[in-house]
Request: fold
Amino acid sequence: MSPPRVLTIAGSDSGGGAGIQADLKTFLSLGTYGLSVLTALTAQNTTGVSAIHACPPEFVLQQFDSVASDIQIDAVKMGMLCNEGIVGALAKRLGEWKQSTGAHGGHNVPIVLDPVMVSTSGSLLLSEGAIATLIRDLLPLCTLLTPNLPEARQLLNYAAKFTSHQSGTRELDLAKENEETELPQMMAAARNIAQLGPRAVLVKGGHAKLSRSQIDEYLSYRAETASANEVRIAPTSKPSTSRSSGSRYPQRTKSRPADAHQGRIDNDDELRQLAGVDGAIITRKGNVTAIRTDQNPFSDVLHQRPGSPGADDKVVCDVLYQQGDDGTDGTFVLFVKPLLASSATHGTGCTLSSALAASLAQGYSAVRATSIAIKYVQNAIACGIQDLGSGPGPLDHSYPFHPRGLIASPSDMGKSELPLHRSLIANSLDAWTGFVQHPFVLGLADGSLPRDGFVWFMKQDYLFLRHYARIWAQAAASPDTTFDEITTLVDMSRSIAQEAELHKRLCRESLGVSEAELECATTESAATLAYTRFVLDTGRSSDVLDFLVAVSPCMVGYAQVGRWLAHHRSATLNKDYAEWIEAYASDDFQQAAQKAMQLIEARAARDELSPGRMRKLQRIWNAACRLEASMWDEAMDPSLRRPVLEP
Reply:
């Protein structure tokens, strides 16, 4: 079977970061086949657009007719439409195509429209006539509209001029330019724009000045005023069959996908899968569902978030509104995610709408498609190409299948803080987040982690730490280590021995596990054996950096998890869980992790990090992250707990 086929109708970006170039890269990355209809050619690079050449409307239609008459289209993404002639011609032709039910007709084919109306500097890119035609003729054909805040503001303002949909628009307008935008304004805008015809509207929040406390405050207010009580959606205990974004083997639908409007949130199964696949914290308050990844332990190294507990850091909130059936009230879904510190954001809007179209073409609901698209964009920004030209760089659309070393030479090491760790984490986002966002961590935070799972893990982790301490000491004996490195490595071994003492004390005093049972009657499980042997085998390598990268995820990951848990733990958490969290959030452990990271960075600065060398280090890092997660898998699932040897 051919992959799902997705058509982009948009302009070209000669710099390759946005437009149809970004669309086609996104389609390929998400496992679909890209088709294209060009509306305009642009002369642009990372610093801006110097010229635009619009295609004649007749030629735009010829391109569309040529593709649609021969190839079944499973979804359409529309971007820059350039002028009134093109907007009007496409609206008429797409309307006819949507009514067609033939072999290559467009009935029920989802259409995603990214209304490219406002430039980065704030200038209008479409004439008033083009905007009027877009609102009147094109919006009713859309399955999903994806305006950013300036575009949402213009749509509301022009709707009041050109249409009869004026009821309530004045009070529901977004804040004026240069004023802060509140979440309720974004939600009102999404609902009001949906009255213009789109079946669903995603108002993107990248331009809003929102903090985590504002999100918390609004959701608390909703909990007090909503007709339904708050419902927290726990991850499903069954493995999800849904494809996470970035998979090279996407789900393939056997028939044309249903219209995305039919994929409303009408049960909790999909949300449970989202919680399990994406590590999201999901709550429902009345007709508002919040899907939050801002509260998960993302890496401070990668996302450069404030480290002190309680820091009121900025977040991005995208608001999805889906109209109700038969005049019923619609539903809101809030996608709250951390704000990434990156200048490589050129083409973000194009990429998001393309990822939405690709996911809808594979039969996902609007909510799941939006989750996939947002996750893909977040990861592509984190891996963005910041040094492509002299202006803002593009996203890295190929990150799922072509990891890119971010360090070209030792001379580049001083250009950013912790460059090797940033590179390793950016190129292992699925493995890394699968570790630090594990259900084990979330269960520790709210106390829902089964006690027997915690006991199992503490016993197995004690066995692992014994090997882990040996390996740090073994590295100190390497013939090419410096005196400073020997001192740090020995200190690390001593710190791990102290960590093991915590395990012994908790097991003895709180968990009912004697020291004799811990030392003599506990054998390594399959996950523990696999991890310890991997680290031991890597430690036998003559290359110290290989070993250091193999042990780094354990130190860095637990430091990140400890800090996050200290901030997000339940106030009524039991003593055992609280003491474990306090140990890894403590200044002593945090400082030890920082020393380990600095040691690794200094060692990397001394070595020649060729692309082949980076690939090897990346494989070691990825394996360690997955092996870390597998130990927590055993703790969460009793069916996986199989001692390799009987005691």
Observations:
- The CA atoms of residues 428 and 622 lie 6 Å apart.
- The chain has two domains: 5-382, 432-637.
- Confidence is low (pLDDT under 50) at residues 166-172, 236-266, 306-311, 406-416.
- The longest strand covers residues 314-322.
